[in-house]
Amino acid sequence: MDSNTVQILIAMVCYMLVVLGIGIYFMKRSNESSEEFFLGGRSLGPWVAAFSAEASDMSGWLLMGLPGVAYWCGLADAFWTAVGLAVGTYLNWLIVAKRLRSYSVVANNSITIPDFFSNRFRENKKVLMLIASLFILVFFAVYASSCFVTCGKLFSTLFGVKYVYMLIIGAIFVLVYTFLGGFLAESASDFIQAIVMIFALCTVVICGTVAAGGLNAVVSNAQNIPGFLDFFGVATPEVVDGVQQVSGGAPLFGAAGSYGPLAIISTMAWGLGYFGMPQVLLRFMAIRHPQELKKSRRIAIVWVLISLAAAVFIGIIGRALYPTELLTAGASENVFIILSTNLLPPLIAGVVMAGILAATMSSSDSYLLIAASALSKNIYQGIVKKDATDKQVMNMSRITLVVISVIGVLIALDENSVIFTIVSFAWAGFGATFGPVLIFSLFWKRINRAGAIAGMVSGAAMVFIWKLLLKPMGGIWGIYELLPAFIISCVAIIVVSLLTKAPSAELNADFEAAKTYKGA
To answer: Residue 342's CB: how many other CB atoms inside 10 A?
Structure first.
């Protein structure tokens, strides 16, 4: 290991120690009760709520997956994805945040998403809670695996150590500090990680642009690749067995492909996923006062716009500086690492690499904690053992953390996994399963429990059906599975709710109370 690599390692270890310190600092308070462990006692300020929501949402794909898409096939796919995400972020904070914060208190002080759905409809038999909890366990196991893939790729690329070893070490580290500190530790560390992430992105953009000879040189290089810089076209690398071909020291591309209205709508559908993301929705529920959400919204959207724009541009810069360095779709996700380690002083590169680690941990800790709450709080205490003590719930949650981590590691064992692909499936799963049900639950008085169950099950089922059976057919069937699944879920909610018994007077009273709620 040379001196540069040692300096990078030192910077990253220092960062990891700071994060562990945060977990230890909040350990005592988080263990006071399950509400403290899972929701932090609804005590988040506007800055922490905003930064932790976005950091936990974006994960390693922001620094690796999205730049990799831009590096591999150009601007269009990455750009329209970023636009959809930015719009979705804004609308989620604008429309959902305040009402969910209020309604979660009115609905028997719900502290998890399955809690909220169950209490919203005053369930006696916890069917809705069980369904929501099971889907959280399934999709968050997939999500956690994407984070572990990021850790494995990062450390194996930096230090030349076998991918599997680095994958396991990264998973253990995330598990330990989530285990210690719960939601408050997670949110506080996510606040720091959001700062590190945006610093890393902006630093690499500035240094990469200078190294490439300026903005004009980056743009000129991109314009020489057919479809690479088009909003309505896409670059098509010439590949053999998945590997891009090189001739005369230059990567080969075929004729530009089309990126038409259907592809744009499909890609922008990523924005719909925000309405069903538990890790973001919990921040809405945890903020200390509903009136502070307006400030949080402004902070969040500025962070998102800067981060997404920088991530897309990093992929374009990477093509100018290292056109033949990354010759597969999976390898292209290392463009951020290549730029950082080659262009920055080792200690600064270490901080920037900590940005990838930050992005990964800020998401994986959220996924693990929410999955643990789904099983221990909602299934174990809510259904299996209703008289379970807080201590028993906490013990069960920690067992769940370990189990989900092991499952995530097993899913992530293939080092050729493409982070963007893994994330897109889990994102669609949550967006279609919870998004429509949440929106209708907050804003449509006529929705009933039967409609909510129908929407949740049909949305989740359609994600699998479209992804595995219909999408491979291509053509119109090739659109992102989130869009059709979201629509099917909405239709199911409306039809089933109207065909079944109207909500009770008690449910209508809760709905009105949530509309006028002004409390802390």
So the answer is: 14
Compute the distance between CA of residue 350 and CA of residue 353 in angstroms, rounded to an integer.
5
Residue that is written with structure tokens 């230090």 in the block? 159
35 has pLDDT over 60: no
* 333 token code pair: 């996700």
DSSP letter at 343 equals H
CB of 477 closer than 8 Å to CB of 471: yes
Place of tokens 């995530």: 408
- Nearest of 82, 53, 52 to residue 65 by alpha carbon: 82
Closest CA to 328 of 389, 247, 243, 441: 243
CA pair distance 71, 237, nearest whole angstrom: 10
Q: pLDDT for 404-436, tens place per residue?
A: 888 888 887 876 665 667 778 888 998 999 999
- Residue 192 binned pLDDT confidence (cut-offs 50, 70, 90): confident
Q: Hey, how many other C-beta atoms are within 10 angstroms of the C-beta on 124?
A: 7
* Structural domains present in the chain: 3-416 (1.20.1730.10)
pLDDT tens-digit profile of 358-381? 666 656 666 777 777 777 877 888
Measured in Å, how far apart are the chain's first and last C-alpha atoms? 54
